[in-house]
Design goal:
18% helix; ph1033 like fold; EVE_domain; eight-stranded mixed beta sheet; single chain; 8 strands; alpha+beta
Length: 140
């Protein structure tokens, strides 16, 4: 079965913590956000900000491959329990979103590009995944 390609919208501090501990989480740790992932799915993280009240980032900041076959619950940065999936992260180059907007098929209105990232997690076509992953320096 081919992997699915997913964009996760989270703050860059959360991506760094997930990389450090080897997990992914989305949508404030909701179980439903990690339940439908499969081992081998690829996740590219888009960070709007460094943290909830942090500085703007507006870049793709991380890449992970799902390794955990079931969700698990853990205490997370917020002090609240969160549902996560184990994952392996790659070392990548941070890529600003704006130069890619015209090429991404899931951005249907580049003048209102932020609307595409309103969801905490969404699936993208392989062609978009390859474009972003290549820009991040991944060999895909």
């Amino acid at each position: 079965m081919s992997p699915r390609y997913v964009i996760g919208v989270v703050h860059s501090a959360h991506v760094a913590e997930g990389k450090r501990q080897g997990f992914v989480a989305f949508s404030h740790g909701k179980e439903a956000a990690v339940r439908n992932l499969d081992v081998g799915d690829k996740v590219i993280f888009y960070a709007p900000r460094t943290g909830f009240d942090g500085d703007p980032v507006q870049a793709f900041v991380g890449h992970a491959t799902i390794t955990g076959d079931v969700p698990r619950q853990m205490d997370y940065m917020t002090g609240m329990p969160a549902w996560v999936r184990d994952a392996v992260f790659d070392d990548v180059t941070e890529v600003p979103v704006r130069p890619l907007l015209e090429q991404l098929s899931f951005v249907t209105r580049p003048s209102h590009w932020g609307m595409a990232f309103r969801q905490g997690k969404f699936t993208i076509p392989e062609v978009d995944y390859r474009l972003i992953a290549d820009a991040m320096g991944l060999d895909v």
